[in-house]
Predict the 3D structure of the following.
Amino acid sequence: MISLIAKIVAHFRVNKIKKTYTKATKIQKDILHRLVKKAMRTKFGKDHGFKKISNYDNFKEKVPIRDYESFKHYINDIQKGQENILWPGKPKYLAKTSGTTSGVKLIPITKESLPFHINSSRDAILFYIKQTGDSGFLNGKNIFIQGSPVLKQLNGIFIGRLSGIVAHHVPKYLQARNLPTMKTNSIDDWESKIDAICEETCDKDLRVIGGIPSWVQMYLERLLHNKKEKKVINLFKNLSLFVYGGVNFEPYKRIFLKLIGRKINTIEYYPASEGFFAYQNDQNDSSLLLQYNSEIFYEFVEVDQIEKKHPNRLNLSQVVLNKNYVMIISSNAGLWAYNTGDTVMFKSINPPKIIVTGRYKHYISAFGEHVISSEVEQSIKFAIAKTKLVVKEFTVAPMIDVSKPDLPHHEWWIEFDKGTNPSDKFAEIVDSEMKNQNIYYKDLVDGKVLQPLKVVNVPTGSFKKYMKSLGKLGGQNKVPRLSNNRDFVTGLNKYIKKTESKN
């Protein structure tokens, strides 16, 4: 019954959304007006002269771009229980997320912003049903590998991980179908939690799996090990859909195919504590539909402009295709010209569709090459396709301090599947594709400023164990795809050597 109802709902909802495609820029203009008007009497609104803001140019003059550090004193006031700081009243939640310079960040989620986290996820599924005609997965069980739903309370505000917060607001018609149970999901130790999830799900009619690919991979591997099976499909014969977000799935495709035993459909989400920004609405197109009608006002700044005192800020009507932008948001959660740190590229204007290219602080430009996440991910995807090798995890860092006759280079720390012995050919293919992806990298290698990249083989399980040692195993934690320094790989290398000396 539920699958039939879902098809009907999908038909009407998808058609309704499609009718707004041509109105996206007008919708964005109206959203900015509503947000400013609503927050006019807040502390932030008074501090920034919201009463005098009547258009986008006024807004840019009055409200500078800020990162979390610059917002922190407002967040501190909220934590103290003060009202009307960034948005009328108090936020319902503060979502805990990891920061780069700030340690733990606390991002406000209001009663007005929360529904859009839920509805965007729902709409992505409805697009999938409308396009494929497949709603049978709703008749089985779903599992989402996510953070703990346990929340703490401070001055009337609940604090926890975004995925844990959302777990409390799963629609009633899905609650009976969702796994794991709250009890299992609340287990603190990540590895104990994975074992418990395996036990709880192994005999269920599981049809949908969701989560960050690296942690879903861990679940699938543990499941096969515990149940002494070779393929996931032997346990879940009706498994048909994988929903993911947070990282690019391409490097994981081959290992997932091997683990599951057959290809299944996927839907990509682009969620964050700051908002649900986009989702894949077409199985034949990997770009993501920007959520332009979710009470979030978007701005975009070219990457090479973002560090300037007065960068050139663009709204949705001003962006162009195939240019790398840092995404800035203002929302009904009380974020104002907030620098998300994410970089995106538009692949369509009508409707507005993007790909996530990485983090503007996650790049390598030790030699002026400015390599970004999407370029390294495309290069390893290409090499995997050419060699049929299985990559489990990887990260990239510059190697500057070398002894002559060596030249500086990029180091690719790669964990291949157990028993895989990559040849030098793999590194050659990755390097060749990197040259295709980044002209500056090509020029530096061809000009003998850099030598071709080198691959460092990482022992099986090392990434997972090292992340665990950092207290970053599971949840929303991810291995950085690349860094402009060697901090991560230095730590990883020390951990590997320490482990090897004990054995």
